[in-house]
Design brief:
Largest sheet: 8 strands, mixed
Structural class: alpha/beta
Strand order of the largest sheet: 4-3-2-5-1-6-7-8
CATH superfamily of the largest domain: Mur-like, catalytic domain
Strand content: 15-25%
CATH class of the largest domain: Alpha Beta
Distance between the termini: 58 Å
Radius of gyration: 23 Å
Helix content: 25-40%
Shape: globular
């Protein structure tokens, strides 16, 4: 193979090379099979680079919802434990470099460029001689992350699956533990239209003898997971059987709210003692946990098969985050038993108190309150609706909605549009974005409300700010692309205001 001696002259040139690859994230329709999603391409590309993925231990995470938050929680704890921790996640909100991190620091432009440059001769050769065998956008990103983690001597890598699991490019590792957060309906045209078929794809990350932690509840999906674990001799640890969420308390607006046993949010978690209130003033005096009276978040008590973690503070909104935290603690227990890691409870508590999950019910503005969340499934939109109603006081709720057109739009919209006082529909720059006119028609049919139509996210943000008072809440949701573009639009608006004030 002919080597290119010059390499990339800039980060921009490297990005241009990357974006020439097939990007299934932006294709409207495609066939999900071994010809389009193939581990063979990934295996060969990594072999070319000396199999960097075999040089570091890893934790592998999949699921329909919550895998990103789970990955961030896990990587934050490992970093606080003193481990050089790699994190590979997707999608990004604003900057591609968000996807590849070490100790929560994004890969630099120089590091990205140099690592991609090592694969350039291999990729270019395939593009010129065998285009069908050329790696995809996500496969190249995964390979760059693997090589970067090897060069930087990461001591643990946390890898989030991009799509499904079985044929995902991350599924080349043999992790210390696998996490399957849940199984719900998303990408049904790709992964299947039954929970058992989707579970089959998620279960594809299960490896021989590697323990699995999961929050899967649906009986059909769970049966698939259990069968796969049995066939792989992989012990399965389940939320509600081996790990329990004993108490969850929401902390907001200088008040504490206990999620009651008869509340749907709690029922989904299978709490053992949900009616008991956890006094936020009763905390370990040695703990560095922020005072929950001045923080929004959750106070949780979580129990594993060998240990109880009382009064864990999570600076995250939404009781569903307790489920993700429980899976993380279960995985940590497994690795403790393996002797893979050594970490004390106080380190875990302090790390979780500092977790930051961008665009997960994230407050990014005040007066009016502006909430960013990239809920894009039925379940995630339901959790978002609950989180808004339970954790915030507002006069009027203004929704900015934008989705990919391959989503279960009617059922997703049903979960949120009824609580919106004003609705603005928009579209991201992603080619897969649903036309706002279509969203508007669906909303009117579902609930009789008239949505304002905008052509782009920036116009949607401008319209929302125009109609909002200081007592209102603006919630921007539907996709990571819309969330990222809204974040950029709001940053530009703030910068413009600051500039005007200075002048």
């Amino acid at each position: 193979m002919k080597q290119n001696e010059t390499g990339f002259q800039s980060y921009e040139e490297a990005l241009a090379f990357l974006y020439k690859a097939i990007d299934y994230e932006k294709l409207i329709s495609y066939q999900y099979n071994a010809s389009t999603f193939s581990l063979d391409r990934m295996v060969k590309m990594l072999e070319y680079a000396g199999n960097p993925h075999k040089s570091f231990p890893s934790i592998h995470i999949t699921g329909t919802k919550g895998k990103g938050s789970t990955a961030i929680m896990m990587s934050t704890i490992l970093e606080h434990a003193g481990l050089t921790t790699g994190l590979f996640t997707s999608p990004h909100l604003v900057d591609l470099k968000e996807r590849i991190q070490i100790n929560r620091q994004h890969i630099t432009e120089n590091d990205f460029t140099s690592n991609l440059n090592e694969f350039r001769p291999y990729i270019q050769h395939l593009r010129e001689t065998e285009p069908s065998a050329s790696p995809t956008f996500f496969e190249i990103l995964t390979a760059v992350a693997m090589l970067y983690f090897k060069k930087e001597h990461v001591e643990m890598a946390v890898l989030e699956v991009g799509l499904g699991g079985r044929l995902d490019s991350t599924n080349v590792v043999i992790p210390h533990v696998s996490i399957i957060t849940n199984v719900g309906f998303d990408h049904t045209a790709i992964l299947g239209n039954t929970l058992s078929s989707i579970a089959y794809e998620k279960a594809g990350i299960i490896k021989q003898g590697v323990p699995v932690v999961s929050a899967v509840e649906d009986s059909d999906a769970l049966s698939v997971i259990e069968k796969t674990c049995k066939g792989k001799d992989a012990r399965l640890y389940l939320l509600g059987r081996d790990i329990w969420i004993e108490e969850v308390q929401g902390i907001h607006e200088n008040k504490s709210v206990v999620y009651r046993h008869n509340h749907r949010t709690i029922l989904d978690f299978g709490l053992r003692n949900a009616d008991l209130s956890l006094n936020p003033q009763v905390r370990n005096p040695k703990s560095k946990i922020p005072n929950p009276k001045s923080e929004r978040g959750l106070m949780c008590t979580i129990k594993t098969w060998r240990h109880t973690y009382p009064e864990i503070f999570l600076p995250l909104i939404g009781a569903h985050q307790a489920k993700n935290c429980a899976l993380v603690l279960g995985a940590l227990e497994i690795m403790r038993e393996q002797g893979t890691i050594s970490i004390d409870d106080e380190t875990i508590r302090n790390a979780l108190a500092q977790v930051h999950c961008p665009a997960r019910v994230e407050v990014i503005g005040k007066n009016p309150l502006i909430i960013l969340d990239y809920a894009h499934t039925v379940d995630s939109m339901r959790f978002l609706r609950m989180s808004l109603l339970e954790n915030f006081k507002f006069h009027k709720l203004i929704l900015i909605l934008g989705f990919a057109q391959d989503k279960d739009l009617d059922n997703i919209l049903k979960e949120i549009v009824t609580v919106g006082d004003s609705i603005i529909v928009t579209r991201s720059k992603n080619p897969r974005a649903a036309p706002p006119e279509d969203l508007s028609q669906r909303i009117e049919k579902l609930c009789g409300k008239q949505a304002e139509i905008t052509d782009n996210t920036q116009d949607a943000v401008t319209a929302a700010k125009r109609m909002a008072s200081k007592e209102d809440l603006i919630c921007i949701t539907g996709s990571a692309y819309v969330a990222g573009e809204a974040m950029q639009a709001l940053s530009m608006s703030i910068a413009k205001q600051n500039s005007s004030a200075t002048n």
